[in-house]
Structures are given as structure tokens and as C-alpha cells.
């Protein structure tokens, strides 16, 4: 029987591993116990002559006492029953020394009764967040750091930060002291220190000199992605707060309501060089997760200033004047002859900027002329109101056509300009700037009547409870929408509120409609919409009942956010652990098949645009891209940038084949060509880039935004389909979904759909080539709604009802590639619904890891047993070895695992032990006599070596490829046979 076979396999495997490792079974019985060095179990003398001691000392003491007592009892030949008891308690003492938590029930503790606390044993000192692995080996404290509150530094350039001078003096103290000694202002370190304490003027001069070309690192917790730590040039300032550049706030997710940042000093020359070349803030203006610029993400008042200055106001001074050149117009404004926002006509000059006007007159304003004078001389004239979209287009174009630093410095100029005119505008906002629409009363009265009619029909038994609820909610949703439509018209088009809204600087129509329109419907804590609408707006004031109902939702929101943040953090941690050793190892693995991407693809699942741009941007072509006439547009190996993609979309190319991480043949890593563009730097990824960790951060960082809408109503009975973070976790951990969808097991055509008291049945006729010949019936359970209709063609693995597909089932039915696609689409879709964009390639890396384990079917000439789980890389390496020795190869089936299982089954036991289940992993490693080859990142951090990525990457590492294994394809047997 299978159960017995598995058990026997396990026992045989254990014996085999112990033999290979040279571990003797009798070693399992401890005859001597090693004692930890005293430094690791310190005693501290407290005042009053008492001692505080480490728990481990107590546990050791108990073992010694009981052992000695047992020895005495044996010498005096005590009765059997006493000996037996003494042996038992000695065994207990040894057990709890090694792992106190293993012994449920009889744990060793200090004191009795209420003051009882369990002692921390050896194993507990390794486990968990406070244990040795995570507290001491993976996270260490550093010297030369400080922290302080941040304030805005509007006059800094993008790569600068203001550092309080007392803080700087403390941070750069060693450098200052060495300079003091060099100049012989003091003769020993003590003297130099005294000089610093006195605050001598020479000291400040020396400090200025010391920090001249140095960079410091600023870090704001929580560091969710690479951009949470960046390097800046310090500028000495008075006061105690760190000045922070406003445009780097979005990257750190910082604001100025009391956030703090930590400062770290890179000490060595090499560290300074890395800070300058790699981490400088003006070189990191793109998000590694999506390739979007961070600097233009939140420009608030800068944007408001630019928008205000580029508007046209009728009736301003000098309207309709004509000027012979832009400079004359600006001079006229300086002399007060023409208003800043008056519509004027200007004769264009023949520079590149005015090319579009062909030397003719064009209508514009002085404000627009000024705004354009900030942009580079070759940038075409922007002759419209500069709102958020326009500014982002400018930034994106600059990034495409120039490099990141140029863009960064342009942003600085725009920042100065925006702040200047936002100040000039004197925009302010008062209660009377928003008005309640006049039509509101009438609309609400009509809705109240309809609601009354509905409840009357319900009382007469014409409607069910469910229908009444749905109809009532529909009415109020319509009312809210109708009032929201009226809102923009109530605003004064030259007023401040309109400017803020229209420019995209802050706020949405929704918030204004809550202030002066109608607050609308409220959800309760379970996420069900209450049928009691809040009719008032904040301007009119809420009634006590309305206020009470609102409080409920608001409070729930705050509590949920706090809890969700922890969940998102834990997800990131698991993702990092599963992908940490995915690094770029070689230039090209020679993969030629590639993934096919349709060029003219419409909307993707869930109505979210997963466009061709999203899928193909920044990837290398696996084959030449040819259009219908056979003309080659792009050669194989070309990296597709945005311009190329626009070109392809206009052409007649049907599909292109792009390289993908999923099909990369490099073992224990990836190659540059399959990964493609490094989104954070906008160029081909470098060797040794830690792409796994970047992928984990890219998925984890927006995770906190996936908080709110966890459920959306689906199905007639209103059964919930999990969305948001819980669904992401469900997919990555390969859990069975709460509401599984029905999926097709064969390709075919929908023949018939029957409905029998709320249960649907779908009948599918399989295609000619399938194994099954007769039509199959699929029962759709209560609460699920079918999503196919009669006559539809279905593929195997396709969803027939709403709900979430179960990965295991999909994998069994449709195989690996289909499952990979589903996971990628599902994850990207969930993020896109929340407006957080994550590039496909990051999800692909995680998916590659989920599929990176195999189950051995036939061990061949290797040292494994059937049923063992093995890493794909290890499997390849073994097979290469077996091929060379001419032995039988291993045969294995692919598996799909959740990310935690993958992280725990990592080849490196240090990496796995520092993740979870520490004790269990270390015990297994000891039995196996496991070796850790220190290939990944975590292992190297733990033993304190440089990690083998980035600047620590050593070229010329031997890289094995899938190709070298005989007949690369067949031995990776699919899940079919």
C-alpha cells in the first residue's frame, strides 16, 4: 500500500543519508553534553549583590544536579523505583536544555504559580525574529548612524540632503580627528576630542572640508524596496532636523508630518564609490518594480504652480497684444505691460523649440513662455495647460530620449519654477469655495419616494428581502453618481478648488462630492453595503444617526490598515526567501523558443488592460519580428523599448516571440537576455544583479495598497470571491481557494447548459483529438455563475464558472505552461485593479521558483530515492554527472509548490533555517550531514562574506546549462504520462 511504501521510503532514505554522511546511529544517544562558552551565556551582577543569569545556565545546572544525584543513587544501590524516577527527570532536564518547547506539558520553568516563566532553551535562542539567525546574523547594528525628523528642503538639488551640523560632526568624527592631527591643532586623539567638544571654529572648517565629496545614505523605515535607501550629498545646516528633497518623497513614501529617517555613513573609499555611482538619488528615479518614474509621482504644489501659470485668463492686462519674439513678450511682462496669463500672440523664432509653428505667429501666454524656458532647448514647445498628465509625459519623454541624470536635473528646475509660481498665485481655499448643487434636494426627494415604493412592495410580499436590498442600494448608488456628475459645474472655473482638481495636484471629484454633494452608502465591517444612505454632505452637516453609521466604517478602515501592513510585510519576507538566489549569471543561455505575445491583443481577463506594451516592454526578441510582407522590423535579440512597441503596434506583425525568465536555460540563475531590461535603470540588466530580490520587493512593495477592497460581490447569492492581498497569498502559496471555479478538463465545445433549482450543469463535447470521446458534464455548485454559453469553444484548464482556479487542479489538467500563465495573469490583474503596476517579469521569477522542484520517479544511477523532492538545478547537475559517468539518468516529474514550501526545501540549510521551522531543519541537516555550498545570498550574509551579487559578483563562475543534459526536453517529462 502507498502509505506503507512512503513510510518505508522515508526510513530507507534516512539510513542511506546517515551512511553517506558517516553519521553513526548510536550517536543519537548523548553520553556527553557539550557546554556553551561562558561568553554566550553571561551572568550580570545586579546591585544588591544579586545576579541575573542567562536561562541556559539554569538549564545546565539542572542537568548537572540531576546527573550527580543519579550517580550517588547508583553508588548506594537505591531501589529501582527511585532510580527510574531519577532517570526520567534527568532525561527531562536534557530535553529541555536542547529544546524546551518540544516537551509540551512538562516544560522546565522558573518559579511556580503566577510568576512562572518558561526558560529559553538552546533551540529557542535560534528561532524566530528574536533568535540568533534573524536578530544577530541577518540583521546587525552599525556604527556611524543617526536619525532625525525630516523637513522639506525646497532649495536642495535632487542629490542633496540637509544634515544638521552637530549630527554631521558626530558622524564624521574620525575623519575630523585625523585632519586635526594632520594639521597639528592637537597632538593626540584626546586633545582632538577636547577641541571638538569646545566647538572651535577650525573644527567647523575642517568638517566642511571632510564632507566635501562624501555621500551619506538616508533610509526611511519600512524599507519596502530598493529606493527606501538612497545616497545624498550632505549640506550642513543649522537646527536639528534633516532637510529632505520634496521629489524623492514618493520613493521613500515619506511626508513631512513627523516622519523620521536614519543616516548612515559609508566609511571606506569603495563604499563611497558605490554610494556615488549606484545609490545616488539622481540615478534612481525609476521604480524597479514597474519602470515608472518616482519623481513625477506626487508633485502637489509644484504641479499647482505650473498649472496656474499656464492657464489663460480672459480680461487680463494686455490681452491680444502681438510680440515679435518670446523674449520681447517676457520683457513686456517684467515691465508690467502685459499680464502673466493674458492671451497674446508671439512670432516664433527658428530654433528647434518652435519648429512646429514654422516661423508664424502663435497664440500663447507669458506664463507658458516662462514654463517652456525651463525645459531643454530642443524640447518642442508645450502650448497647453500643464496638468499632471502633461508633466508626466514630459518626464517620460526625457527619460526615453536622454539619461536619468539629465531628467533628474530638469525635475529640479521644474520644482523651482513650480514653487515660485505656486507662491505667487496665492491660492487659498475656504468653505465657500464649494457649493451644494441646487438640484440635490429634488434628486434626493425622488429617490426617497422610490425607496418607499420598494419597501411597500416588500411589505406586500412582491419582493424578496434580497431583491429589496439590491434595489434600494441601486437607487442610492445612482443618486450619488448623479450628484457627483453635477459637482464640477458648481465650481468656479477660475477658483482654487477647480485648479487643484483639474491640475491633478490633489483630490478627486469624489472627495468634493462628499464635502458638498452627498456622502453616499457605507459598508459595515464585514464589507456588506448598508442600505441606509448618508444623504447629507460634510458642508451641510451629518445627522446624529448618519454620523454614527459613518464612524463605524472609518474606524474599521484604520484597524484593517494596521493589520494588513503586517500581512503584506510577511508576504514580502516569504517572497524574498523564495527568490533570493535568483541572480543574473551569464550573458545569454541560447534559448530560442521564447514566449509568443500577440501584438493586437484586446483587454485581458478582468477587463484590465494587460496590453502588448506591458507584456513586451523591455524584453529581448527570441526570433526576428517580421510583418506580413516578410520584411524584418526587428532582429532577434533586440530589446523592445516603448518606441519600438509603438512601431510594432502600427505594423502588420501578428505576434512576436520574446525571451522570458520562465524558459531561461541557465542553471542556478538567469541570463541577461531572458531577463531583458533592468526597469530601475532603463538599460539591459547587468551580470550579478540580484533580480530575485528585486522581484520580491516589486511584488511586496505595493502589497500594502492592496489592503482595502478585499472582497468584491460576485455571483447571485452574493458569495464573495477573494481578491486583494489574500488572493495573492492564496495563489503564491498554492492553497485551495475558498470559492473554487469549475475548470474544463478537455478542449471542446459547450453543447448544452441546464439549470436545475439554482444548480447549473454544463455539457462539453470534447474535440476529435482528445482521449475522452463522449460528452462530459460539469456541475456548477450553488452560488457560482457559469461564464460560458452554448457554442463556445473551450480549452482545457479554462474557467467555466466564476471563482478562483485551484492551481493544483489546473496543473494536473492543463500542464505547466498553462498554470504559469494563469498565475502571472492573476497576480498582475489583482495589482492592476488597485492601480499598482507590477511588471510581468517580476511575477515570472517567483513563478519560476514555484515550479523549480521535481519529484523523483526513477532515481537511476544517482544517490536519491524515489519520491524525493529535488531542485531542478541539482537535478540537472546530477544528470550531467551521470551522463559523463555513463550511468542511468534520473527521471522526475515536475511539481508546483507554494512559496513557503519552496523556501523551506532550499538546498542551503542555512537559508532554510533562517526562514522558518529552524529546529526541524537543523535536525534534518545534522542527520543528513548536509553541506552548505554558500551559493545564495542569505547563507553568505550569515557567515559574514560578501554576497555574490552586484559589485561582489565574480565573473568566470562555471555555469551549467540545461542543454548539456542529453535531450533537454524529454527527461523533464510533463505531468501527462
UniProtKB/TrEMBL annotation:
| GO BP terms | DNA-templated transcription
- What is this enzyme's class at the first EC digit? transferase
Query: GO: which molecular function terms?
Result: DNA binding; DNA-directed RNA polymerase activity; metal ion binding
A GO cellular component annotation in the UniProt record: DNA-directed RNA polymerase complex
Might you give the EC number(s) for this enzyme?
A: 2.7.7.6
Q: Does the keyword Metal-binding apply?
A: yes
Give the protein's function.
DNA-dependent RNA polymerase catalyzes the transcription of DNA into RNA using the four ribonucleoside triphosphates as substrates.
Supply the name of the protein. DNA-directed RNA polymerase subunit
Amino acid at each position: 500500500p502507498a502509505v506503507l511504501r512512503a513510510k518505508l521510503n522515508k526510513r530507507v532514505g534516512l539510513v542511506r543519508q546517515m551512511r553517506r554522511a558517516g553519521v553513526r546511529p548510536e550517536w543519537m544517544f548523548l553520553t556527553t553534553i557539550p557546554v556553551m562558552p561562558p561568553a554566550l551565556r553571561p551572568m550580570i551582577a545586579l546591585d544588591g549583590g544579586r545576579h541575573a543569569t542567562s536561562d541556559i545556565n539554569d538549564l545546565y545546572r539542572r542537568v548537572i544536579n540531576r546527573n550527580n544525584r543519579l550517580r550517588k543513587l547508583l553508588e548506594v544501590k537505591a531501589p529501582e523505583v527511585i532510580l527510574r524516577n531519577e532517570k526520567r527527570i534527568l532525561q527531562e532536564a536534557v530535553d529541555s536544555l536542547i529544546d524546551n518547547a518540544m516537551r509540551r506539558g512538562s516544560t522546565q520553568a522558573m518559579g511556580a504559580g503566577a510568576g512562572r516563566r518558561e526558560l529559553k532553551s538552546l533551540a529557542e535562542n535560534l528561532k524566530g525574529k528574536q533568535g540568533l539567525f534573524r536578530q544577530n546574523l541577518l540583521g546587525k547594528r552599525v556604527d556611524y548612524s543617526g536619525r532625525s525628523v525630516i523637513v522639506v528642503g525646497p532649495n536642495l538639488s535632487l542629490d542633496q540632503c540637509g544634515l544638521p551640523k552637530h549630527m554631521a560632526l558626530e558622524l564624521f568624527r574620525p575623519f575630523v580627528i585625523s585632519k586635526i592631527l594632520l594639521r597639528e591643532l592637537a597632538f593626540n586623539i584626546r586633545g582632538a576630542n577636547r577641541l571638538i567638544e569646545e566647538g572651535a571654529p577650525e573644527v567647523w572648517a575642517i568638517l566642511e572640508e571632510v564632507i566635501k565629496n562624501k555621500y551619506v545614505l538616508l533610509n526611511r523605515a519600512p524599507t519596502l524596496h530598493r529606493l527606501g535607501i538612497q545616497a545624498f550629498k550632505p549640506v550642513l545646516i543649522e537646527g536639528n532636523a534633516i532637510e529632505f528633497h520634496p521629489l524623492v518623497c514618493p520613493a521613500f513614501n515619506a511626508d513631512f508630518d513627523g516622519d523620521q529617517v536614519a543616516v548612515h555613513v559609508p566609511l571606506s573609499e569603495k563604499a563611497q564609490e558605490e554610494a556615488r555611482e549606484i545609490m545616488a538619488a539622481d540615478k534612481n528615479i525609476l521604480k524597479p518594480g514597474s519602470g515608472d518614474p518616482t519623481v513625477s509621482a506626487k508633485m502637489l504644489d509644484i504641479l499647482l504652480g505650473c498649472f496656474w501659470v499656464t492657464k489663460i485668463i480672459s480680461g487680463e492686462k494686455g490681452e491680444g497684444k502681438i510680440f515679435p519674439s518670446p523674449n520681447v513678450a517676457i520683457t513686456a511682462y517684467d515691465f508690467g505691460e502685459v499680464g502673466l496669463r493674458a492671451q497674446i500672440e508671439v512670432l516664433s523664432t527658428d530654433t528647434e523649440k518652435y519648429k512646429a509653428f514654422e516661423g508664424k505667429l502663435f497664440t500663447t501666454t507669458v506664463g507658458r513662455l516662462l514654463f517652456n524656458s525651463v525645459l531643454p532647448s530642443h524640447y518642442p514647445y508645450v502650448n497647453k495647460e500643464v496638468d499632471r498628465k502633461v508633466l508626466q509625459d514630459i518626464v517620460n519623454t526625457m527619460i526615453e530620449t536622454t539619461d536619468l541624470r539629465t531628467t533628474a536635473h530638469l525635475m529640479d528646475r521644474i520644482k523651482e519654477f513650480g514653487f515660485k509660481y505656486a507662491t505667487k498665485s496665492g491660492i487659498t481655499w475656504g468653505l465657500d469655495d464649494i457649493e451644494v448643487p441646487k438640484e440635490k434636494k429634488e434628486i434626493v426627494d425622488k429617490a426617497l419616494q422610490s425607496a418607499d415604493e420598494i419597501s411597500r412592495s416588500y411589505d406586500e410580499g412582491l419582493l424578496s428581502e434580497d431583491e429589496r436590498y439590491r434595489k434600494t442600494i441601486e437607487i442610492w448608488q445612482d443618486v450619488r453618481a448623479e450628484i457627483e456628475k453635477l459637482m464640477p459645474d458648481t465650481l468656479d472655473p477660475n477658483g482654487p478648488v477647480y485648479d487643484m482638481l483639474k491640475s491633478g495636484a490633489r483630490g478627486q471629484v469624489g472627495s468634493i462630492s462628499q464635502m458638498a454633494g452627498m456622502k453616499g452608502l457605507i459598508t459595515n465591517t464585514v464589507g456588506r453595503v448598508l442600505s441606509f444612505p448618508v444623504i447629507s454632505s460634510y458642508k451641510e452637516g451629518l445627522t446624529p444617526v448618519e454620523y454614527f453609521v459613518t464612524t463605524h466604517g472609518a474606524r474599521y478602515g484604520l484597524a484593517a490598515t494596521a493589520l494588513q501592513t503586517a500581512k503584506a510585510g510577511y508576504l514580502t519576507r516569504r517572497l524574498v526567501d523564495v527568490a533570493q538566489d535568483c541572480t543574473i549569471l551569464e550573458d545569454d543561455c541560447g534559448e530560442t523558443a521564447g514566449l509568443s505575445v500577440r501584438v493586437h491583443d484586446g483587454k485581458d481577463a478582468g477587463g484590465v488592460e494587460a496590453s502588448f506594451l506591458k507584456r513586451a516592454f523591455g524584453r529581448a526578441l527570441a526570433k526576428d519580428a517580421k510583418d506580413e510582407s516578410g520584411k524584418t522590423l526587428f532582429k532577434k535579440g533586440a530589446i523592445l523599448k516603448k518606441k519600438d512597441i509603438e512601431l510594432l503596434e502600427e505594423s502588420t506583425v501578428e505576434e512576436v516571440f520574446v525571451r522570458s525568465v520562465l524558459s531561461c536555460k541557465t542553471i542556478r540563475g538567469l541570463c541577461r537576455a531572458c531577463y531583458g531590461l533592468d526597469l530601475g535603470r532603463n538599460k539591459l540588466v547587468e551580470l550579478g544583479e540580484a533580480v530575485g530580490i528585486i522581484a520580491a520587493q516589486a511584488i511586496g512593495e505595493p502589497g500594502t495598497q492592496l489592503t482595502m477592497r478585499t472582497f468584491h460581490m460576485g455571483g447571485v447569492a452574493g458569495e464573495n470571491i477573494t481578491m486583494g492581498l489574500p488572493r495573492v497569498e492564496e495563489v503564491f502559496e498554492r492553497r485551495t481557494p475558498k470559492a473554487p471555479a469549475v475548470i474544463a478538463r478537455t478542449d471542446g465545445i459547450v453543447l448544452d447548459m441546464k439549470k436545475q433549482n439554482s444548480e447549473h450543469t454544463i455539457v462539453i463535447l470534447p474535440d476529435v483529438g482528445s482521449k475522452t470521446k463522449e460528452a462530459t458534464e460539469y456541475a456548477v455548485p450553488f452560488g457560482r455563475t457559469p461564464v460560458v454559453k452554448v457554442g463556445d469553444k473551450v480549452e482545457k484548464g479554462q474557467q467555466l464558472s466564476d471563482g478562483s482556479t485551484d492551481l493544483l487542479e489546473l496543473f494536473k489538467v492543463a500542464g505547466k505552461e498553462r498554470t504559469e500563465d494563469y498565475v502571472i495573469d492573476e497576480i498582475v490583474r489583482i495589482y492592476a485593479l488597485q492601480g499598482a503596476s507590477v511588471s510581468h517579469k517580476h511575477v515570472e521569477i517567483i513563478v519560476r521558483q514555484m515550479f523549480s522542484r521535481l519529484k523523483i520517479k526513477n532515481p537511476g544511477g544517482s544517490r536519491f530515492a524515489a519520491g524525493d523532492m529535488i531542485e531542478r538545478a541539482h537535478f540537472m547537475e546530477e544528470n550531467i554527472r551521470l551522463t559523463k559517468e555513463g550511468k542511468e539518468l534520473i527521471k522526475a516529474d515536475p511539481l508546483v509548490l507554494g512559496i513557503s514550501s519552496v523556501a523551506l526545501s532550499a538546498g542551503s540549510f542555512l537559508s532554510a533555517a533562517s526562514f522558518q521551522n529552524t529546529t526541524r531543519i537543523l535536525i534534518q541537516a545534522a542527520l543528513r550531514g548536509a553541506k552548505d555550498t554558500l551559493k545564495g545570498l542569505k547563507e553568505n550574509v550569515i557567515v559574514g562574506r560578501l554576497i555574490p551579487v552586484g559589485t561582489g559578483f565574480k565573473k568566470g563562475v562555471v555555469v551549467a546549462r540545461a542543454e548539456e543534459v542529453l535531450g533537454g526536453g524529454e527527461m523533464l517529462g510533463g505531468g501527462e504520462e
